[in-house]
Amino acid sequence: MDLDTARQELEEFIPHVKKISDSSIRKMAGRDLMRFKEFKKQGIAVKFGRFTQKENKQIQKNVEEFLSLTGIDSAEKLLFTSRYPDDKDTIHRLKTEHHFCEKISEGIPRPWRLIYYRARKMFDPNNYKGRYTTEEKEQLKKYQALHGNDWKKISELMSRSNLSVAMKYSEIKSAVNYGAWTKEETQKLKNAVKEVIRRRLNTENTSSLSSLEESNTDPWIDREQLYQQLPWTEIETKVGSRYWRQCKQKWNSILTSKMTKGHQLYRGTNGLQAKINLIKRLYETKAEDASEVNWDELSNAIGDVPRTYVQAKFYRLKVSSVPLWRRKTFSEIIDYLYEKKLPEFEEML
Questions:
Q1: What is the pLDDT of residue 250?
Q2: Alpha helices in 71-99 (DSSP H)
Q3: For residues 82 and 130, is the Cβ–Cβ distance under 8 A?
Q4: By the 8 A CB rule, do 211 and 220 touch?
Q5: What are the φ/ψ torsions at residue 54 (nearest 5 degrees)?
Q6: Quick count: other Cβ atoms within 10 Å of Cβ 21?
Q7: Residue 314 falls in which region: left (phi positive, over 0), alpha (psi -120 to 50) or beta
Q8: CA angle 33-38-39, nearest 5°?
Q9: % helix / strand / coil in the chain, to the nearest 5?
Q10: Which residues are in the Myb-like domain (predicted)?
């Protein structure tokens, strides 16, 4: 299949396919396209975002079955083969012979690459080593000075996962402010977000940048752009005094404030209607886990608000309305709201 055809067929399953590199498209055409078509026949949509508990169990099952099939000693050997140079050739041969890509992704409607990364995170023994000691933090700073941001190399030297060392370095590389955000810091954050989105729009050859040309104090970014993944480590560098997780949390709070300004969605009649709509839409999703819910789509149920606003309102709803909610599963909470609270709210309305 030629590249253009592959991209066109994948677009049906992956809306952001135009942003994916040519090499990734070729790999997805080989590993994913037929899987996606099979899932479509079964009425199952391709998923992104957080993995559910059900999917994690399926990955665990797939890995265990592949180990049993091939006789490979451990999940670490299977997923981190470079750590075992003496066995590398044998493991690669077994992976090829027994169709590792197909087996590991069986039953999971997601791109293979995401499933593979999730499996590596689940089965990496270096992921769960607890807090960094003072000595480890000093080691990390020295290794970063020597090897730059080669987190794979540094993770091998420290016996920690790539993600762990990258995130920890992000936290300790400079004096980080843990207090309230100042006006200057907040403005730096807004400017940084504006800059990365402007660059993204330029890269995509967008015809108009007018939504970005308004003043920094206005909600100047198109709603769709706000919800896209942003390069938080880059934004962290531009802000200077906060690490990336703080920047992301602050941006979400700014976004929620801007997008909900002037809305009285949870007061009076509007509030009751919003709760009714939210409960009905959640019930219709038939989701077993909160991570299965498309919160962006759900936000339309109660108004032009961001997902964080909807999630916060759902949290308040379950805490105030569902007895012993901590002991209930997500689906049990939704069933209770639908069966017990919905009729009450409709009568009140």
A1: 85
A2: 75-79, 88-97
A3: no
A4: yes
A5: -60, -45
A6: 8
A7: alpha
A8: 95
A9: 70, 0, 30
A10: 124-172, 173-255
Tokens of 184: 């200057």
How many residues appear in the chain?
349
3-state SS of 118-142? HHHHHHCHHHCCCCCCHHHHHHHHH
Quote the CA–CA distance of 95 and 64 in Å, as a whole number. 14
Which residue positions in the chain have pLDDT lower than 50? 205-224, 227, 262-265
Retrieve residue 13's tokens. 């399953």
- Token pair for residue 257? 């404030």
Please tell me the predicted confidence (pLDDT) of residue 90.
93
Residue type, 45: A
Crossing angle of helices 22-31 and 3-10, in 10° steps, is 70
pLDDT of the residue at 232: 82
Q: What is the torsional sign of CA 184, 190, 193, 195?
A: negative
Q: What are phi and psi of 74, to 5 degrees?
A: -150, 160
- Assess contact for 213 and 170: CB atoms under 8 A: no
Q: What is the dihedral of CA 22, 23, 25, 28, to 10 degrees?
A: 180
pLDDT given for residue 229 in this prediction? 67
Structural domains of the chain in order of their starting residue, each with its CATH number: 3-123 (no CATH), 134-173 (1.10.10), 183-204+218-260 (no CATH), 268-348 (no CATH)
Q: What pLDDT does 259 receive?
A: 53
The burial class, CB within 10 Å (0-12 / 13-18 / 19+), for 302 is buried
What pLDDT score does 272 carry? 83
**Whole-number Å distance between alpha carbons of 100 and 91:** 10
